[in-house]
Amino acid sequence: MGTPMQLQEMQTEINQLLKSLNVDTPLVFAIDNRKNIASALGFYVNGTIPLLNQKVNSTLGFVSVDVDYLNRNLTYDEQKFVLAHETSHIFLNHVVPIAIDTLVDRLIKYYDPDLHKIVNIVKIFLYLFGVPPPLPFLIKEQELAADVRAIFLTGNENAAKTCLTKLVGGNLDSCSHTWEALGIKMPVMTMRERLQGIQQKLAEYRQFGYKITF
After folding, report:
1. Which of 54, 128, 156, 213 reaches 20 to 30 Å from 20, CA-CA?
2. Of 145, 132, 147, which Cα lies nearest the Cα of 178?
3. Are 150 and 91 in contact (CB under 8 A)?
4. Is the CB of residue 195 less than 8 Å from the CB of residue 161?
C-alpha cells in the first residue's frame, strides 16, 4: 500500500498543514485510536483576547486515527488526505455548530421528553420529504467543506477520490455518514453523493480561477 506512516510522521504532517494555513500555534495532537478510522475534536481561535489585548492565532485539539487501519488499507497520499480532512474540521471550527445542536437536543430531552419526541418526529418527517433538518444538513456541508479544503491542502484530488472509495469498500451507494433520531439511523449522504458534491464544489472554485496543484 506504499510507505507506512507512523504516528510521529502523522503529527509532523498535521503541524505542516496548520503552518500552511498560517496558524501560529498549531496545538493539534495526533493520537492512535482503534475505535474510529479517523475523527477530529478541537477548535481554531484567531483574534484578540478582550481585556488582555493579546493576539491569538492557534488551534487546539486532537486528530484521532487508527494507524494500523490506515497503513493496511490506504496509500501514503491517501493517508495525507485523511489527515488534511480531519485537520480541516478543526481549522474550520466544525465542532462548534454540531456541539450547539447536540446541546439543544439534550436540553429538550432532559426538560421535556414528550416535546423531544415530537421534535424528532418532525425532523424525520421533514427528512423523508426531502427537507434536511439542521444536523444532517450541517454534517453534509461540513464534510464537503473539509474534503475540498483537504484537496487544496494536499494538491491531490485523485488521492481524495480513491481514499473515499476505499473507505466504503468500493460500494459508492454505501452511506458516507448517518444521523440519528429516536434511535433510528438515517443516511446523510451516500459516498457517491459525497463525491459528486466534491466535484460540484471544485467546479465552482475553478470558475473563480482557483487551481489545484498535483
Report:
1. 54
2. 132
3. no
4. yes
- Residue 174: φ, ψ to 5°: -75, 155
pTM reported for the whole predicted model: 0.88
What is the distance between the terminal CA atoms of the chain, rounded to a whole angstrom?
20
Query: Residue 85 domain-assigned?
Result: no
pLDDT digits (tens, 9 = 90+) for 31-44: 999 888 999 999 99
Does residue 81 form part of some domain?
A: no
- In terms of domains, do 106 and 198 share one? yes
In a domain? residue 172? yes
C-alpha gyration radius of the chain: 19
pLDDT tens digits for range 177-203: 887 777 778 888 999 999 999 999 999
Q: What is the mean pLDDT of residues 106-119?
A: 82
- Domain, as residue range, for 135: 94-214
How far is Cα 123 from Cα 130, in angstroms, rounded to an integer?
Answer: 11
